[in-house]
Design goal:
This protein is of the alpha/beta class. It has 20 helices and 15 strands. About 2% of the residues have low confidence.
């Protein structure tokens, strides 16, 4: 588009500065959109502004950013493509100046009636990529003049076209980053490991202990409820040890019947039993010079516990059906969700084996006791699954995150992952809503996620984690963070002090 001679030098310089700004700020789409809208409003002296993005599948326009006296209330609405000024702009892919909205039949008063904010005049221009409209920028109520001018329209059109391209680039970058997260997780999975996510002090403390004990060859017993991440801790013990180039072999002691478990652990020779048609290595032999992870060790039959004790003591065993002794160099990491001390008391678990395994005990607390991990894990799973289901979720609504934080997660991390996956499948962008989670919070009388379960407490906790996340994404630039959050910078500073948010 050629610049008109009517655009003065001051506005031209502002356009150049804004163009540089929006084309260098791809790190966060919300920051980008907030900058675009604030700059547009300042350029043409508007009192309020909105940036609406087109959802072609639902045939609606959603308020992605709204600034001004009733900006937060406006964001609750969606506009149909055949309604209002914005709908007309999208449908016709043309700009509009409306300096008397009351007399324009295209103007829809629905949002005005709901918010109480009166629109006197309006500029509305399409955001285009390759001549296709992807959204609308609206500027409302020209300050201290009779209305918007054609110069205002031309300035906004130039800016909107550049903004649309910058927005598309930011979306592409976000998708690429999501793919990197997914690929990194996939690479870890292909290697047989999981991505470790930790933010809570209690888990960071456990990881510090892991770092210190990993170099030892002593046995480790990991305790905790099902789904808390005991296997991930075992992986970290192996990866941070000098054995990390050796194998990491997993055995679920509860998954196999007693008759097969002995062969699985120690191997067998041909003819040892009916189906033994050839010699077979056991898991201990496979783990030589590495680590063996014995999950659900509390379910190990008493008949095998003495043989395991010998492996720990002498690093030796015999295959099923053989008298030849095999020596292995293996570090043993065991885990259980059972009360193993009670099992020892009840003589269901050998006390001498328990003491041998319990040289370095590690208790992993349930998710409800490490609430700082919950938002971090939820967003990690969201990035993973929004990529898989091919839906552009921007995050969780306030209600959804409050529900996530107040739920007690009896299934721990495994349940949280399944819940986010389900929400991504059934939910609709841009945000995961509380109803998408399908969490029956009322049916959980033993909900102990929060000591104080009041709405104020839950919302403050949500605010703290969300503000921390936004501030970290913006490298603690409070001006940028305030624009994303659609609040004043002074109010953000006050929240940081009140909620005791600290830079890490």
């Amino acid at each position: 588009m050629k610049l008109s001679n009517t655009i003065d030098a001051e506005k031209l310089n502002a356009l150049i500065e804004i163009n540089t700004l929006i084309n260098s700020n791809y790190s966060d789409i919300n920051v980008l959109l907030a900058h675009i809208l604030e700059s547009a409003m300042n350029l043409v002296d508007g009192e309020a502004s909105s940036l609406l993005l087109l959802d072609s599948k639902l045939k609606t326009l959603r308020f992605e950013v709204a600034l001004g006296p009733k900006g937060l209330e406006a964001k609750k609405f969606a506009v149909k493509m055949d309604e209002g000024i914005a709908g007309w702009v999208v449908k016709n892919n043309r700009s509009l100046i409306v300096n008397d909205t009351a007399s324009d039949p295209r103007f829809s008063p629905a949002i005005q009636q709901s918010t109480g904010y009166k629109t006197l005049n309006m500029l509305a221009v399409p955001m285009r990529v390759k001549d296709e409209c992807i959204g609308v920028i609206e500027i409302l109520n020209k300050v201290a003049t009779d209305g918007f001018t054609h110069e205002d329209l031309e300035v906004l059109e130039i800016m909107a076209n550049q903004a649309a391209i910058a927005y598309q680039n930011a979306k592409s970058l976000q998708r690429s980053r999501d793919e990197i997260v997914v690929l990194q997780d996939q690479i870890a999975t292909d290697r047989g490991y999981h991505t470790m996510i930790a933010r809570s002090p209690v888990i960071l403390e456990k990881l510090d202990i892991v770092e210190r004990v990993a170099k030892s060859d002593s046995s480790v017993l990991i305790l905790g409820e099902s789904g808390v991440g005991k296997e991930l801790i075992a992986e970290q013990l192996h990866l941070k040890s000098d054995r990390n180039k050796g194998p990491f072999v997993r055995v679920n002691c509860a998954a196999l019947p007693e008759g097969l478990l002995e062969s699985e652990l120690f191997g067998h020779v041909k003819g040892a039993f009916t189906d033994a048609i050839s010699d077979r290595k056991g898991r201990f032999q496979m783990a030589d010079k590495g680590t063996i992870f014995l999950d659900e060790i509390g379910d190990l039959p008493l008949s095998l516990q003495s043989k395991l004790l010998r492996v720990i003591q002498n690093k030796s065993f015999e295959k099923v059906g053989s008298s030849d002794t095999i020596y292995v160099n293996v570090r043993i990491v065991a885990a259980t969700n059972r009360d193993i001390e009670k099992q020892v008391e009840d003589q269901k678990f050998r006390s001498d084996l328990y003491y041998r395994l319990n040289v370095l005990p590690l208790y992993i607390p349930p998710l409800r006791q490490r609430i700082e991990d919950i938002p971090e894990l939820a967003y990690f799973f969201l990035k993973k699954f929004r990529h898989e289901v091919k839906k552009d979720f921007a995050g969780f609504s306030e209600g959804a995150m409050s529900a996530i934080l107040s739920y007690s997660w009896p299934g721990n991390i495994r349940e949280l992952e399944n819940t986010v996956e389900r929400a991504c499948v059934i939910g609709k962008p841009p945000y995961i809503q509380e109803e998408d989670l399908l969490l029956n919070i009322r049916a959980m009388p033993d909900n102990n996620s929060l000591t104080d379960k009041s709405l104020k407490s839950v919302l403050n906790l949500f605010k703290k984690h969300y503000l921390q996340k936004v501030l970290e994404e913006q490298q603690w630039n409070q001006t940028n963070a305030a624009q994303i959050l659609d609040i004043q910078r002074t109010y953000l500073s006050r929240l940081i002090k009140e909620l005791e948010i600290k830079e890490k």
